[in-house]
Amino acid sequence: MKKLFLWIIYFLLSLIFLLPFIGIFLNSMNFKMWEYVLKSGKTYDSLMTTLLVVIITMFINFIIGTPIASFMARENFRGKMFIEFLIILPLIIPTMVSTMGIQFAFIKLNLIETALGVAIVHSVTTMPYYIQSMRAGYVTLNKDYINLGKVLGANAIERFLKITLPIIYPSFLVGMSLVIIVSLAQYLVTFIIGGGQIMTLPILMMPYLVDGGITNGTVYSIIYVAFTYFLVFLVDRIVKNIYRKREY
């Protein structure tokens, strides 16, 4: 009975998650389209632009979101509920509304049609996910470990790399993975702030999907999925190598 139940679960999960991807894969079985996409310079330019935007977005999330997550997890203070509301506010306000408000400010700051401007807007969208993920990790971190690092003379960076990161690594990976996934999924805000000049992979891919170019669109969709998995895997490897080297 237990095995039957597990098989039913496996079947349903496969149906939900794999069936759409199988359809995309079958529709992409056109070698001429693969040749066209892989030989196109726009494909590689969009991948490099997407990588640049994601890296800047991850950096902004790390620099701003990490101390906020640490503070919110460890401290109790008056007005904490209000701060928590502000953190999740970008998820409540419609993306179009917030982006249009940001656009006017970015025009004055000359951040329109720049990778930095797009990354900042992506950070607004991804920051709640990163903070909540890191906050869950910091809740499990015993303050005594940090205090012991201070006693042994470790500075803030050393304490994070040698003590904090190895302990909260799963939360950090989840947070960064969500940053990557959500950032890559941003089409509308990228188009508005980038003005069509910041050609990320979703910007390049979308016209093929909406104008009936289903074959090219499915090829770009597979590249999109593979690129997302590659970035998540790369972050995982880099972080593991960092704190493993710190152990020696």
Automatic annotation (TrEMBL):
GO terms for cellular component: plasma membrane
GO biological process: transmembrane transport
Annotated localization: Cell inner membrane; Cell membrane
Transmembrane segments: 7-26, 46-73, 85-106, 112-131, 167-199, 219-239
Family of this protein: Belongs to the binding-protein-dependent transport system permease family.
InterPro entries for this protein: MetI-like (IPR000515), MetI-like_sf (IPR035906)
Record flagged with keyword Transmembrane: yes
Name of this protein: ABC transmembrane type-1 domain-containing protein
Species name: Cetobacterium somerae ATCC BAA-474
Keywords: Cell inner membrane, Cell membrane, Membrane, Transmembrane, Transmembrane helix, Transport
Entry-linked SUPFAM superfamilies: MetI-like
Membrane topology listed for this record: Multi-pass membrane protein
